Amino acid sequence: MSKFRSRHPRGLAMCFVVALLLLASTCDGGGRHEGPIDGNPPDDPEPTEPLPTEERPGVLNASSLKFSLSPGREEEQMLEGSTLQGSAAIFFVAPGAGSGITGVEFFLDDPTRKRSPMTRDTRAPFDFAGEEQDGQAILYDTRQLADGDHSVTVVVHYTRFHAEAATASFTVANASVPEPAPIPEPMPVPPAPPGLRTVGAWERLFRTAWEREHVTDFLPRSNSTDSWDFYGLAYGIDANTAMYRATGRTVYLDRALLYVNNLVDTARVSSSLPRSQFKDGFLGWASAQSDPAGQEVPLFESYCWRYVTRLLRVIRETPALYANPAYRSQYERLLAFTEKNIFEKWFRRGAEDFIYRSRTHMAAHWAFIAMDLMLMTEDASARRNYQAVFDDINLGLPNANASLRTQLEPHPRHPDAWFWSDRWGSRERPGQDVAHANGVLAFVIEAHDAGLTWTDDDLRRFAVTLDTVIWPREGTYAEYVDGSGKGDGWFNDGLMKLGRYDIALQRRLEQHRAGQNSQFYANGALNVRLLSAPRGP
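Above: the chain's sequence. Below: its structure in token form.
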């Protein structure tokens, strides 16, 4: 009996302590209480620690506060110690997995949190100024603040009444900054031709793959130092550029620019690449996939860079983008890099070996790049050189009695279609393989749309080649342009772009099941956008 009575008071005391702790947690500034409450306080309770407000290992700190000049939060930088001008996205990035967060509060110039928070956010992404319905961050205009030192404090609330805080200090310096040109609003998308899938419907399909492909494929490739990875990255650059052209949403343009800026940042001086065959002063990349390994490979670079130059030409030919300082500065940086460390590099190393390539599709990549540079450069001498390469590949190669134009002849079984071989001067069947025919068409279509060399009749014949010879019926695909062999129906990188000229072909592509990914969906959207209204840049 005495044992029973001796335990009872301790049980009451324990319940009393738990009740006090629970009461304190509900009264302490909205639940800022460190550590879990589990009903078993330690034998010798320590005083509750203050909220962490300085950097310590394993604890939330200022490095979790970021800023970006893009609504898509690309090219994020640490807010701590930064200098901000104009508008920026300010946001919190949870350390680790970020699980268990129930809310985030932001305080401006109030590190001790004596006032109410400026904003509260209950789900990721956690943005200081909030976010748009499409998930883009709302940019905060720092011109609302006086020039000088400022701070943002974040309080992160977790499950079970746990909270942490951190403060990042930054400087605002807007005195000499002119009013920036506004980021262009998307132009209204005209109605799709009757019976066709709309741009919006294509975009919804695109978004089902967009973020996943970014995280698992395109972003890692853009940060790679092996140029073989640029081959696959080409599709991500094309996809985001095409979707921007279809919708006018700069979040897609920003994603493509992120990839290209990453590529440029990984370039190294050739002389520093251990097994480069050139060892000169141009910037570039080596590849473990070359033979022998570690060499610089022109094909890997040109395959990707044709879509880099197309992206840059979109900025140059869109007045609102070209007038915007953020886009203009990226354009100028990337154009200068391209002119010197892509085109000039491979031209000087040997044009007949590296520019005027032995196969139609490989030369077409350089014709694409030369065309875009010709339309952008302000250097008259360089423009003449780009024009010469463009003309040589289209009309008469210096190292072969052939050209893209003279390769083409009426198809032996379908006179309204084109037949051509990938080997210069050859007329032998089976001709060009369909997989690499995409590379030829990617160039020819853009040249036609720029009003250069290729005619409406040429494109009509290419459309017949796809619609009749290569793809005679659903589920049946040729491997070669003569109609022979068994192909896989992968048209994403060029052939499917023919849908922008032919409503019936575009309708077939809507039902096509091979190769459905972001590049497929983006070019489907661009096709219907161009079918709906006069073509833009």
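The chain is about 45% helix and 10% strand.
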